[in-house]
Design brief:
By secondary structure, the protein is an alpha/beta fold. The chain has helices at 17-23, 42-58, 72-87, 102-113, 131-137, 160-169, 230-233, 241-279, 306-315, 335-339, 344-347, 361-380, 383-392; strands at 5-6, 66-69, 93-97, 117-121, 142-146, 173-177, 196-200, 211-215, 283-286, 296-301, 318-319, 350-354. Helix 2 (42-58) runs parallel beside helix 8 and helix 8 packs across helix 12. 48% of the residues are buried.
């Protein structure tokens, strides 16, 4: 396999060369522990502070409101579990949505086993959270609303500002999983009334294994990782200095280039969507047609299995996915596609293609041409498709 077309940027992105260069000194000569008191550690400590400041500015936060974690999953767990523990005397009710990442959904399941009551608000056919249903779910004992900023599978952007206003009006803490949105679309924690926000470095051409948790000043939640005084005693563990520096640089580049990148990538996304919908029959676009992440296209192809599709795409050098990378080993259909009303047989035939600034039209032309052949081949092998064709005649 000589050709490689990487279209799984929602799973992870290629680290930018500027990011790698920024990290290198902290993997070598400047290896000091930023928590140490001697002068040699000062450069590492300064680098951590600078990265924290850059990331805070990216979302309109204060520097001291940014906490470094090992990634979005840890941040999501921290937001939900620590909020539950800190507020359980006030109430044990949490509101989330049916299309959250499993880092939120599985944490909610854990909290349910501990006696908390979780309401899962539905979404419409485009994957937009139903605001009236959310409002109706609020109770006197509701302590947290956690809704993602943009969906990792179908790319739909949520009305976060409106949800934040609802939470603020009802004096409920609001957390958003912004792992897919951070660095790709504008986010401002004050304008959107966000109390806690999760993000990850490797979704914005930064390194893996580093994330952030924004906690608004005055929000009283405890530590999630115990064992040290790092991160103002809220997140123990030696700082991942190369990762922190890398995420800081990636955030700087993402904010600097956001408008230009969004324009370029969304044009490529629309080109891909139009080409697939025009050239491959019995195909459905999943997610909102326009109010979606610039790089996301998610399709369902009738009469085929997504797993076979991915294997054959891989053999042609094309990297895509059927949904979240965190559930790639599951045989169950996507919970997101089920939530927007797709039947099992259609949900099983899904394909998520997520682009980057390095994607070209030639890459997309090759992908669509290859996809056409694979879909035809799989449908020709399907007795369901054969029956469907006979009925059409």
């Amino acid at each position: 396999m000589n050709k490689l077309v990487y279209l799984d940027n929602a799973a992870t992105t290629k680290p930018a060369s500027e990011v790698v260069q920024e990290m290198l000194p902290y993997l070598g000569a400047s290896f000091g522990n930023p928590s140490a008191f001697y002068g040699f550690a000062g450069k590492a400590a300064q680098a951590v502070d600078e990265a924290r400041k850059t990331i805070a500015e990216a979302i309109g936060a204060r520097q001291e409101e940014i906490y470094f974690t090992a990634g979005g999953t840890e941040s999501d767990n921290w937001a939900l579990v620590a909020t539950a523990e800190a507020n359980e005397k006030k109430g044990k009710h949490i509101i989330t949505s049916t299309i959250e990442h499993h880092a939120v959904l599985h944490t909610c399941e854990y909290l349910e086993k501990r006696g908390f009551d979780i309401t899962y608000v539905g979404v419409d056919e485009d994957g937009v959270v139903k605001l009236e249903e959310l409002k109706a779910a609020i109770r006197p004992d509701t302590i947290l609303i956690s809704i993602m900023a943009a969906n990792n599978e179908i790319g739909t952007i949520q009305p976060i500002k409106e949800i934040g206003a609802i939470a603020r009006e009802n004096k409920i803490l609001f957390h958003t999983d912004a792992v897919q949105a951070f660095g790709h679309i504008p986010l401002n924690v004050d304008e959107m009334n966000i109390d806690m926000l999760s993000a990850s470095g490797h979704k914005i051409h930064g390194p893996k294994g580093i994330g952030i948790m924004y906690i608004r000043r005055g929000v009283k939640i405890g530590a999630f990782i115990h064992g040290g005084a790092q991160e103002r005693r809220r997140r123990a563990g030696t700082h991942n200095v190369p990762g922190i520096v890398g995420m800081g640089k990636a955030a700087e580049l993402a904010v600097r280039d956001m408008e230009e990148a969004a324009k370029k990538v969304s044009e490529l996304r629309d080109y891909l969507i139009e080409k697939v919908m025009k050239e491959i029959p019995y195909t459905k676009l999943n997610g909102h047609r326009t109010n979606r992440l610039p790089n996301n296209a998610n399709f369902s192809f009738s009469f085929i299995e997504g797993e076979s599709l991915l294997i054959m795409l891989d053999q042609a050098g094309i990297c895509g996915s059927s949904g979240s990378a965190c559930t790639s080993g599951s045989l169950d259909p996507s919970h997101v596609l089920m939530a927007i009303g797709l039947p099992h047989e259609i949900a099983h035939g899904s394909l998520r293609l997520t682009l980057s600034e390095e994607t070209t039209r030639e890459d997309l032309d090759y992908t669509v041409e290859t996809l056409k052949g694979i879909v035809k081949r799989l449908r020709d092998m399907s007795p369901l498709y054969e029956d469907f064709v006979k009925k059409q005649k």
